[in-house]
């Protein structure tokens, strides 16, 4: 490949490159990087369909183009990878440096730590999902105790009362009490 031809290839993100390659061990380069390239060494569990497969963590070892390891077990920043990451042939440095074994136990330790960190970040995502499963109620202030007695909860961000969508008995009670907005 000509020195700049790799920048012209397009069409896949890092996860799709991983699947096409059959697993870790392939090389990537970012069009915004200067003199570095990286070897993808692990991607976490893919839990959803393509193209982003649930956005699992992706780890790489980053090398300067002349050989030395610059950063080990670094996170591949995957969003936008269709635009910025390119799969490249193994650079000549691959034959000269001591590459990390793909079964290195340190990889699992770092990946597990990333999963724990991701679980904390998903709290906001879970909030969005929870919001979709909420049935909003119209409860006058003076009747808030009635709402509480059937299991309704206050939603401070929206300043409204709500019930979980899967609580049919409570929803029936709310309807009979006139707490549905359309009951007015």
Characterization of this structure:
There is one protein chain. With 184 residues, the protein is of the alpha+beta class. 30% of the residues lie in helices and 23% in strands. It contains five helices and eight strands, in the order αββββαβαβαββα. It has helices spanning 14-21, 81-84, 105-132, 144-149, 168-176; strands at residues 27-30, 36-43, 58-64, 69-75, 85-88, 134-137, 153-155, 160-164. The strands form two sheets. Strands 4-3-2-1-5 form a five-stranded antiparallel β-sheet, with helices on both faces. Strands 6-8-7 form a three-stranded antiparallel β-sheet. A hairpin with a 4-residue loop joins β7 (153-155) and β8 (160-164). The model is unreliable at 119-126 (pLDDT under 50).
Give a quick rundown of the structure.
The chain is of the alpha+beta class and 184 residues long. It has 5 helices and 8 strands, in the order H-E-E-E-E-H-E-H-E-H-E-E-H.
Summarize the topology:
Elements: H1 14-21, E1 27-30, E2 36-43, E3 58-64, E4 69-75, H2 81-84, E5 85-88, H3 105-132, E6 134-137, H4 144-149, E7 153-155, E8 160-164, H5 168-176
Antiparallel strand pairs: 1-2, 1-5, 2-3, 3-4, 6-8, 7-8
* Total beta strands: 8
Please state the average pLDDT score: 82
Helix content estimate: 25-40%
Principal-axis shape equals: elongated
Contiguous runs where pLDDT drops below 50 for at least 5 residues:
119-126
Judged by helices, strands and strand pairing, the structural class is alpha+beta
Sheet bearing the most strands, described? 5 strands, antiparallel
**Secondary-structure element string:** HEEEEHEHEHEEH
How large, in whole angstroms, is the Cα Rg?
25 Å
**First-to-last CA distance:** 70 Å
Number of helices: 5
Tell me the strand order in the biggest sheet: 4-3-2-1-5
Q: Give the DSSP E fraction (strand runs of 2 or more residues).
A: 15-25%
């Amino acid at each position: 490949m000509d020195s700049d031809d790799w920048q012209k290839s397009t069409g896949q993100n890092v996860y799709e490159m991983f699947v096409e390659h059959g697993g870790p061990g392939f090389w990537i380069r970012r069009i915004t990087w200067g003199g570095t390239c990286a070897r993808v060494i692990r991607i976490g569990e893919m839990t959803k369909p393509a193209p982003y497969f649930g956005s699992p963590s992706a780890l790489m070892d980053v090398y300067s183009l002349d050989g030395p390891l610059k950063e080990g077990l670094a996170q591949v920043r995957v969003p936008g990878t269709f635009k910025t990451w390119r799969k490249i042939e193994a650079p000549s440095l691959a034959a000269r440096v001591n590459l990390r074994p793909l079964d290195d136990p340190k990889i699992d330790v770092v990946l597990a730590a990333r999963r724990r960190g991701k679980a904390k970040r998903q709290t906001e995502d879970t909030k969005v999902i929870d919001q979709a499963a909420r049935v909003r109620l119209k409860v006058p202030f003076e009747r808030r105790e009635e709402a509480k007695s059937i299991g309704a909860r206050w939603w401070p961000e929206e300043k409204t009362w709500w019930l979980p969508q899967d609580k049919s008995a409570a929803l029936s009670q709310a309807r009979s009490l006139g707490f549905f907005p359309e009951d007015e």
